[in-house]
Fold this protein.
Amino acid sequence: MFVADPVQTSVSSHRPDGRMAARDPAPWRLAALPQTLDVPAARAYCRQVAARHYENFSVATCLVPARLRQHLANVYAFARWSDDLADEAASSAEAATALAEWRRGLEACGAGRPDHPVYVALADTIREAVLPIEPFSDLISAFEEDQAFDEAAVAIRYPTRTSLLSYCRRSANPVGRIVLALEGCRDERLVAMSDAICTGLQLVNFWQDLRRDRRAGRIYIPAEDLTRYRVDANALDAARASPQLQALMSDEVAWARSFFEIGAPLQQLAPRSLRPAIELFIAGGRAVAEAIERCGYDTLAARPTVSRWRKAALTAQAWWRVLTTPDRGRP
């Protein structure tokens, strides 16, 4: 699942066959796909998908220089297509076929022969920013992994926290790595901080969406954690969380928060152009964690959300803190 919105508030729907529909409309329903491989048209399409898909992307991109916004739109359109090709398919078999074809398109893009409008735009970004193809391939691999679990009807997906983090490394961390690379930032220490932030966002998204994922046949809580707190998978079908599940969720939220602490210095050490957006996403992730805490760690009874007013305040705070904090990092 693509983790770019730490304070998403829309509700997913469910298919008759039990598969989860995409949280927001798929990108091919938001704008007409160009019929040619024209670069300007491809760029315009990616901008339309990014602008119409959800509000937080528009807010975040307004916090970065204009020269980066097209690149971010191209990356977002790629990630959204990758995710929704799996979630919007009528069956696991169709999802597997769609993802295989999408991966073939990425390989063609990497070879300089893009054959899809999204890849035409993305090829420009890869070339201009000198980006490696691996982060994009990693994202697809995470969606392929979800699809394979769906097809095999595997509910509890990861035995340990370490194995769940391996999934996060491919499903979330590539996004932060790509964004840093757009500004030429490849410092291993800063990349590790970015990875921590993205992992934290992925984890709070899991704990926020416990019921939604369960209904889709997906449980991201590591098996070892379920065992330690004596929580059976069937407990996730209840209308409310048991005391044991609430205690487990408290631990999982604390775990997610620890990653925000690890990544927090990036707010001052990243390239200046990226700091406001980084500030916003850390604050957004923490706000989701606080919302889960406020509901007593019971995300079965209701999905914790962050209000529009809170979102606006987070955006204002991101600007203010960046403008008033002494510069200790890169220009």
